[in-house]
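Allow me, if you will, to draw on your knowledge of protein folds for a short while. The matter concerns a single protein, recorded as an amino acid sequence and a row of backbone structure tokens. Kindly check, if you would, that the fold set down in the tokens agrees with what the sequence suggests. You will find the record immediately after this paragraph.
***
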Amino acid sequence: MADGSGRRRPAPSPRQGRPARPRGARVAVHREVRLGTAELVPDLDRASSWLLFIDGVPQSGVDLADPGYLEFEYVRRIGHLADLAFPPGEPLRGLHLGGGALTLPRYLQHTRPGSRQLVAELDDELTGLVREHLPLPAGHRIRVRAADARAVVESVRPASYDLVIADVFAGAVTPAHLTTAEFAAATARALRPGGVYAVNIAAGQLPLGETASKYAELPATPDFRTSRPAASRDGLSEARSAVATIRSEYQETCMIAEASVLRGRRRGNLVIFGSDQPLPEAELGRAVAGDPFPARLVAGEDLRRFAAGAPVVTDAAVAAVTRAADVVANVSASAETSPQSTNW
């Protein structure tokens, strides 16, 4: 799922109170799900495409007639990796952390029939809505488990998947427990030799008043692995930390993003790949450079420089931030409920 910064062709905003339509016309569907308000909206650019919005933020795009069509640019980049890192048409074992409209599971089923896939999607009501209105193709081997992404990846058999994809957002950010070195290590354990981990993250300055994550509250410490990311004008400090964290667990890594995002000019998506074997960097770089929104592949020394000095996020660091936030919340609550002076 995207955080709303993913780029696509301009699409109509979901709206209620539409006038009556001819019989058989596609109509938007609105439903409250566990994590917000979900809307399935017809894509007016493609007769069989639908867009999924959560609380008004675009999350997924699905073309029921052509599952090989990938609307959002960061999804296309993961699709390129799947196409290039494994023999063409070979069924894969895929683990998807975050489901949305099940765009990439459909893509792998379409391009690699017979692929066995497991999806971890916490919001079972969202999954029900998607399966009701955007049914999966006949003969698919896609299972959806209503559970936390980390709990699922830690429960699977070691070395049982070819591809692990993490695309989980709560609003504009990835949940903290899915950003740590320990989580990255769990994804590595789930992969077979030569398997690939793909993670989508948001990068760049947030709108005024929004907080990227609790990591900004971490106190600086002498311990590199738990010190907070240094503030940066380009809004990429947490992206650098994400790269450093994944590099701490994977021997081979690369990153894909548009130049405007890498320069801090706008907020957008970064896709990071990790493996124990060399990645198809040259072919992947050519593929993303030819996309409708051309992107740059960053690897090797360039990626090392991008992440230089950034802290590796750990479970301990996240726990420390959570404890500190709880203390602040308790103090604030206590102040609000304390008797007020009546000495005028």
About this structure: The chain has one domain: 72-326.
